[in-house]
Design goal:
This protein has 439 residues and is an alpha+beta fold. It folds into 2 domains: 335 residues, Bira Bifunctional Protein, Domain 2 (BirA Bifunctional Protein, domain 2, 2-Layer Sandwich); 91 residues, Rossmann fold (3-Layer(aba) Sandwich). The protein has 13 helices and 23 strands. Helix 1 packs across helix 9. The chain is globular, with a radius of gyration of 24 Å. 45% of the residues are buried. It binds one RNA strand of 77 nucleotides through strand 8, strand 13, strand 16, helix 9 and helix 11.
Length: 439
RNA sequence: CGGGGCGUAGCGCAGCCUGGUAGCGCAUCUGCUUUGGGAGCAGAGGGUCGCAGGUUCAAAUCCUGCCGCCCCGACCA
């Protein structure tokens, strides 16, 4: 992409509405534009990042055996009357009427719709297990939207729903999601901690929130240090096998957010040098809720004994749009965003420092074509701004590499490369520079 | 939903107290000079001062109502 033809409106000053760093950086680097409280338009590079995160989530869900669908944003109120939630949900639900005066709503979540789909096709235990997910915009009319996309009213969420014949099988489904989530966050360059979450009236221990570590995070986490260092299980586990040991390895170590924290237990379960207190952002939540929806909505499964039982369900959410802000909170410096390679809007920026000088243009072009051919999705800065402005902007936007082509270097047959994350620079011949970036 | 704050050019702000020609920086446009970390000079354009009503000879400024946005708290991907 040529920057001169692109749309990447950066701002020198952050709009005063934005208070937290990720929100300021998202506005300044032209990722989003606010249209109303908690409602944002996604501009080109913001959209690219969002799509990349979405794709990571999709790949890991698929790997864990989930199957993608796409449910509508608008849902029928009647389905919610069946589950009993229509009246309970309150003002957070955006209610709409169509021209026939029929009650609709903009979905804040999709349990009702997925149960409606599931029940109309699946009747036998032989068709289980099933895990269906979608990545779709949700709307919750929050009392107080804030923190930019971290707490918007309209947000992109991956929500998965598992269906099983009994609780034992449902636990297996839960375990798959538990481990898949750790892999997702690891691929996004994040350190995530699964913490036990309140299960509400259902009870049991099958609910976890995933909190990514960021100094500016909104909630406090207390965890055994080994849990953080243990990291993700990786993609090459046997997803159909017994995952319980891998999950237990991680759930037996102490981890709690402030509302569930028990200081006395923390001291017993973690030796002093292993006790970690940090700030974080909740970016995922998984739980098992049995027949809470399948029972009232009559999603019945016939078992091997010929008896019908409501499907045992779980649901699993990842805040995709929230992760954009979360990654920035976890990874930035004074100059701007530092994207992990896996989600960066462009892999590398080719910086032409003297647009119009034939020899410089030629080298920049050559570098751009080579990086494009190598699949690095390069951005060619062919604008007529001064060098300082280009560097400042590219640092702000956080493109992982800069390949800098200037008249001095070209005269000597070299270019410069700079790694955004570390600031490390190297001056070397073009071929070597391309190799260093393309790996 | 309780408490607090703010709406003046695309962005950041001053002016309001004490009513009297709407300003500054950045950005934008034109020209010249510049060009390795947000250039310099000269010129230009851009505003129903959130909206409505009121007071007044006169309202960005004072009064009333409404709307929008932000922050703190209780709730959430």
């Amino acid at each position: 992409m040529r920057l001169s033809r692109y749309f990447m409106p950066t701002l020198r000053d952050a709009p005063s509405d934005a208070q937290i760093v990720s929100h300021q950086l998202m506005l300044r680097s032209g990722l989003i534009r606010q249209e109303a409280a908690g409602i944002y338009a996604w501009l080109p590079i913001g959209l690219k990042v969002l799509k990349k995160i979405e794709q990571v989530v999709r790949e890991e869900m698929n790997r864990a055996g989930a199957v993608e669908v796409l449910m509508p944003t608008l849902q029928l109120a009647d389905l919610w009357r069946e589950s009993g939630r229509y009246d309970d949900y309150g003002d957070e639900m955006l209610r709409i009427k169509d021209r026939h005066d029929r009650d609709l709503l903009y979905g804040p979540t999709a349990e009702e719709v997925i149960v409606d789909i599931f029940r109309s096709y699946v009747k036998s235990y032989k068709d289980l297990p099933k895990n269906l997910y979608n990545i779709q915009w949700k709307f919750r009319d929050e009392r107080r939207p804030r923190f930019g996309v971290m707490r918007g009213r309209e947000f992109l969420m991956k929500d998965a729903y598992s269906f099983d014949i009994d609780e034992t099988a449902a636990r297996r489904a839960y375990n798959r999601m538990f481990l898949a989530y750790l892999n997702i966050y690891a691929r996004l360059g994040l350190k995530a901690i699964p913490v036990r979450a309140d299960t509400g009236p259902i009870g049991g221990d099958l609910s976890h929130e995933f909190i990514i570590l960021a100094e500016t995070g909104e909630s406090e986490v207390f965890a055994h240090r080994d849990l953080v260092e243990m990291g993700a299980p990786g993609p090459d586990i046997d997803w159909d096998g017994d995952l319980q040991p891998l999950v237990e390895q991680r759930t037996r170590l102490y981890a709690a957010s402030d509302e569930m924290h028990d200081a006395a237990r923390f001291e017993v379960e973690a030796p002093e040098d292993k006790r970690m207190t940090a700030r974080g952002i909740e970016v995922g939540h998984i739980f098992y809720f049995g027949d809470k929806y399948s029972k009232p909505m009559k999603a019945m499964i016939t078992g091997p004994d010929g008896v019908d039982r409501p499907a045992q369900m779980g649901s699993y959410g990842v805040g995709v749009s929230r992760l954009v802000g979360g990654i920035i909170e976890a990874s930035h410096d004074e100059a701007g965003i530092i994207w992990p390679d896996s989600v960066a809007p462009f892999g590398v920026a080719v910086v032409n420092l003297r647009v119009g000088a034939a020899d410089v243009d030629a080298v920049a072009d050559q570098a751009y074509r080579a990086l494009d051919a190598a699949g690095l999705d390069p951005l060619l800065d062919d604008t007529d701004q001064r060098p300082g402005a280009k560097f400042t902007n590219l640092d702000l936007v956080g493109i992982p590499w800069q390949l800098i082509v200037g008249p001095k270097g070209v005269a000597e047959g070299v270019v410069e490369i700079k790694r955004r994350a570390t600031g490390e620079r190297q001056t070397l011949p073009l071929e070597a520079a391309l190799k260093a970036i393309a790996g």
